[in-house]
Amino acid sequence: AKSRGSNAWCFFHEDMTQAARERLALEARLRRALDLGHMRLYYQPQVDLATGRLVGAEALLRWLDPEQGLISPARFIPVAESSGVIGPLGIWVLNEACRQGQRWRDQGLPELTIAVNVSLHQFLLTDIVGATTQALTESGFPARLLELEITESALAEKPEEALFVLNRLREQGLRLAIDDFGTGYSSLAHLKRFPVDLLKIDQGFIRDIPNSADDMTISSSVIALGHAMGLKVLAEGVETREQLQFLQQKGCDCFQGYYCSRPLPAEDFARLLEKERAG
Ligand code: C2E
Ligand code: CA
Ligand code: CA
Ligand code: CA
């Protein structure tokens, strides 16, 4: 048993160095991809549940590698975070999202909010206020149409620092959303102090509706809680008509999900906007 134990340690150790090497390689490729212009933003519609109107778009990052094809953010955001690449990458995302939002306005398409994801490291350790100011100024996109999504876990990690940054962003006139709400263990006392506009119910609570009574209770409680605090509530990951009807019944404000559309390249999203304008 003893020798098996040490063998297991050996394998584990080799796996670790292998994993570390792969991480380093990925980090180098990531930096290069950003320089070479291989990053794209896709846009997922956000729909008002009462009117059915398209009211916003969440910008979601994609890495278009010439050899490997589309690489998911779940694979590279963690590496970007721990290596610091998230700094320049996050700035690129903000600039691109604002430029695109302004392009659609210039084309006379219906006005909508653009939501941008901000990671923990980017939120607390980079100059996010400076980066958003610059992106807005350079693009001409109005602050009131830019929404930043910050995960509940990021806010829970350093609530005092988070509150300070949120207040600065709020002074700029931006909208603020708490992403993945319900998964981050933030205390309600902190939540009350955060100057946010929107709670996004994590898709993990939507997925099993209508089969999970617990998830239905949690979702309707989050909707009630958000409304009691004067916030809008958006449900993520809506895939079926039953889920949509449940959320409508509970008075949820907006939704996102495959039931309406997957995230789309900007050109395809513009076609949705043109349809919206047509009626
Ligand atoms: P998130 O912010 O929670 O984004 C929601 C994820 O759910 C997206 O995955 C979206 O494509 C996916 N999704 C949307 N509707 C449905 C649905 O109906 N069913 C299912 N199963 N999934 C749905 P994606 O695009 O792969 O992004 C994954 C995560 O990567 C995001 O989670 C976000 O945390 C992060 N991310 C994406 N773009 C950025 C970015 O520009 N900056 C930062 N910091 N993080 C980003
Ligand atoms: Ca998000
Ligand atoms: Ca989310
Ligand atoms: Ca998530």
From TrEMBL:
Q: Which residues form the EAL domain?
A: 23-277
Question: What top-level branch of life does the organism fall under?
Answer: Bacteria
- This one is known as EAL domain-containing protein
Write the span of the intact protein that is present: 611 to 889 of 904
